[in-house]
Amino acid sequence: MTDEKTTLFEQFVSDPENRRLLERELLSLEATEAIAGLMSKGGISKTALAERLQSSKAHVSQLLSGSRNMTLHTLSDLLFALGHKARIDFVPLEPRSVGMTNYEIGGNRWSLYTSRQWARKADEPSLEQPNDTAAA
Asked: Which of helix, strand or coil describes residue 108?
């Protein structure tokens, strides 16, 4: 039986395999959000990016939606087509805790409320504030 103060999120990420999967998805989200941000800043549509890659709009859409696995080579190609290159920064894993966890993804701050299990951009107003934001 689990402690009543332990959230479902905490239970989930306490398993190393689940935590590995979460970190994988966060990395994928960070990459796709960064690419979408570059496209937006440059006024580049999915169709235009596909043309630059000599690919299809459907393929680009699949990459950006996360429904298709993006290799490092593909990421490099996407960035090159957008006039950029990647820099990689490795940081130690931090323990996941109760309350609000912030992420910087694609130039946007995202907040994940672990007790309520939902995410939003940190600068967007929320309709409901969780009771445990003191641990932020």
From this structure: strand
